[in-house]
Amino acid sequence: MTPGARVQAAIEILDEILEGRPAEQALTTWARRSRFAGSKDRAAIRDHVFDALRGRRSLAALGGAATGRGLMIGLVRAQGGDVDGLFSGVGHAPEPVTEAERAKARDPAPGAEAADIPDWLWPRFQAALGARAEEAGRIMQTRAPLHLRANLLRTDRAGAIAALAAGGIKAVTHPACETALEVTEGARQVARSQAYLDGLVELQDAASQAIVARLPLQPGARALDYCAGGGGKTLALAARTEGEVLAHDAAPQRMRDLPERAARAGAKVRLLATEGLDREAPFDLVLTDVPCSGSGSWRRAPDGKWALTPERLAELGHLQQAILQRAAELVAADGVLAYATCSMLHDENGDVVADFLAAHPDWRLSEEAHWTVLDGTDGFFLAVLTRVGVK
Ligand SMILES: C[S@@+](CC[C@H](N)C(=O)[O-])C[C@H]1O[C@@H](n2cnc3c(N)ncnc32)[C@H](O)[C@@H]1O
């Protein structure tokens, strides 16, 4: 496909997404009906679509319309590309930009529009990121870095870097924690590399790793990952305890790949159904990596930024509170309850913890940490809670 034809394909996919179709679904459907597209075409089109979605608001201003075509005109302009060369109308390229379209194009207004944050969310975003809110918003217009966790059950960080290098992948250490690596070359090869297939590295954001690294864990501790999902943190926990970790999720199908991932990583993980929780309790540590807005990882899943509403945020707050309360019942008297989100918003972080502590005077906050996109990671939050009187 020509570069112009790729832009036209991205326009069509974006129009479907703007009508409400999930991004992944729109991309897959397009790929199925476009067998002529090779893997490089599909990758380039995917990049266009995600770049446009991250900057949906500012690019609509720059491109003169909140349509697939407007976003792509805006994107090419923002990236300093040749708009008239790509919008040539030749072959499968989009039609040339009209005078009317040119007249509507303008620079995004400073603040929420330039930062690509919905207006209702902007005060909350500012409350969380302070004077650097616009800078953080602009970082979120760009692609997220690819981070790996060196699996200490199989190797160390230097060993992981060397094994990746043998497969043509360049990675450097990331300061977030002792296991974190950032891939600087060959990102698309990682999932096929021997280092990955042998379980030496896992795909995991550096701050997500740092959360697990910060947990107070004694060797041999009995740990439960209460919201295990795909098991990214379960595996990191197992690498730290070097013992068995129990994994639970209200939607157990989300953990379906976990046994295979654990085998590859050499980690001892046992899946636990909801009915078995009380039988297995108490635990020395219960981690609740709760469902949230995902505001810390909107670079990877940008539709979430535009789909979030005040009502959904409030609903999430209730769910987060309910999970924390239930998980607290499973913690041993001298154990630890850890609350984590991949959000940067106070509503889902400090506010939830404060409400929990107000309703549970027997618990106290023993440690709190947060990471934002300004740290070169996804945004994450961690609160470590212990019972009053426990060191
Ligand atoms: C943020 S994701 C977990 C990501 C995972 N810990 C990781 O690192 O890959 C949140 C998970 O919580 C689960 N969940 C939702 N409601 C829950 C509940 N009431 N109890 C336990 N898990 C729940 C969801 O199914 C989802 O898999």
TrEMBL record:
Active site, renumbered: C342
Would the keyword S-adenosyl-L-methionine be found if you checked this record's keyword annotation? Answer: yes
| Key words of the record | Methyltransferase, RNA-binding, S-adenosyl-L-methionine, Transferase
Q: Which residues form a coiled coil?
A: none
The organism sits in which domain of life? Answer: Bacteria
Q: For this protein, what is any one GO molecular function term?
A: methyltransferase activity
Q: Which SUPFAM superfamilies match?
A: S-adenosyl-L-methionine-dependent methyltransferases (SSF53335)
Q: Which GO terms describe its biological process?
A: methylation
InterPro entries on file: MeTrfase_RsmB-F_NOP2_cat, MeTrfase_RsmB-F_NOP2_dom, RCMT, RsmB-like_ferredoxin, SAM-dependent_MTases_sf
Which residues are recorded as binding S-adenosyl-L-methionine? Answer: D249, D289
Q: Does the keyword DNA-binding apply?
A: no
Q: Which ranges carry the SAM-dependent MTase RsmB/NOP-type domain?
A: 136-391
Name the protein family: Belongs to the class I-like SAM-binding methyltransferase superfamily. RsmB/NOP family.
Q: Which PANTHER family match?
A: NOP2 YEAST -RELATED NOL1/NOP2/FMU SUN DOMAIN-CONTAINING, RIBOSOMAL RNA SMALL SUBUNIT METHYLTRANSFERASE B-RELATED
Put simply, this protein is called RsmB/NOP family class I SAM-dependent RNA methyltransferase
